[in-house]
Predict the structure.
Amino acid sequence: MSATQLIWLRNDLRLTDQPTIDQAQKQGEIALVICLTPEQWQEHNESDAKCGLRIDLIKTLQQRAHDLNIACHVLHLKRFSDCPKAITALCQQHDYAQVWWQNELPAHEAQRDQAVADALADAQIDCQRFAPDLIVSRPVHTQQGEPFKVFTPFYKRWLTLLTSHVETPYEAPKKQAEAQLPKLTEITASDYRDDIWPADFQAIREKLWHFCHKKEAAYDDQRDFPATPGTSLLSPYLALGALGPRECLEAIIQTNSQNDRDWQHSIWLKELAWRDFYRQLMGHFPDLSKELPFKPETQNVVWRNNSDAFAAWCEGRTGFPIVDAGIRQLNQTGWMHNRLRMITASFLTKLLLTDWRWGEAYFMQHLIDGEFAANNGGWQWSASTGCDAAPYFRVFNPTRQSERFDESGDFIRKFVPELKSLSDKQLHNPPSAMRRKLGYPEPIIDYSSSRKNAIAAFENLK
């Protein structure tokens, strides 16, 4: 009888569409291991909401694995540095033949993976390392073999590679012979909005297919309006790998085909390509994992970093209704609409001239879908310090953004309820008398002068 293969799951918390499971089961029976590293997650600013969803997904996954007679070990560790010794000891204890995993690209994760591989080699245990968990998992390079630094040419090459080799999702593992299984983990998950994001793999896949059937066609028209339920709300599952990339692609292709649309023109697919872009950048440019800007000259921006202004931004009391509504949505739900992420990030970095790293950390500390590569990429885009970033002179006018993307004020009324009695016109920039009456603050900055200051701060770098 062949020896059991051990599969190490990290931010790919699922049994379906798992290339490691698919290949390892061809070698023999399989077992799974998941390492809990709460101190490391805290250092990485991962939110309580994300950690709560992760724990509940692990519990659900472990139960499903046990139903298939697949041992799923949950190791209670502290940091990534504890993984090499713990995984090696687990292999020796159970005589596991090989360890299989999908590589991760940020610096700390890459260092952890190499340390585990080295420890296993020292113990004469083989490991099988797979490409990262991306839609296009192989590196996307220019014709000169260099990484792309601009999204649009990256996307064209990415789409060409994807079209030339469309993979279907891998099937769930087969049921194994009865075996002795570890106890189910009893760790308590921190609170999160499980009414919006249940840790139920069947519900997750139903959400995916419902979005692709009902909303994906109109995604480009509706995705910028926060009061409209036009987005997928799948990002927390994508961040933790509860959905596989081939599962998303299959849903896009099938639903577009059924409606006589070209799946390659899907705007949601293009948004998923941004995730691949930012993750691959992490692998190519390790400085991005070290709190450094992609554009080195922007390290010389003189940030004002006013702690009182930052506190007002964090608490949703800047006096700009659309900014405050976005931050309050984040604080109340653990999620923020993408258009509002751009508006609030531009406000903090440009109009308040606050270091983008402050906002990046705050988002990670609160987002249920916080993903280091995407969050870092989004903040550096907004701050004009990043790869393919917004031009430094592009400074969102929050009032104009509000009038354009929440014209009737439905979103603002939901999250800034003290303003709900105002007319649609007044709501975006309430008169001073109404602010005083309703207990809503005056704007903490003047847009015009703050915009000039932001442009000057970046012009001086030339």
Remarks:
- The radius of gyration is 23 Å.
- Residues 343 and 398 are 7 Å apart (CA to CA).
- The chain has a mean pLDDT of 96.
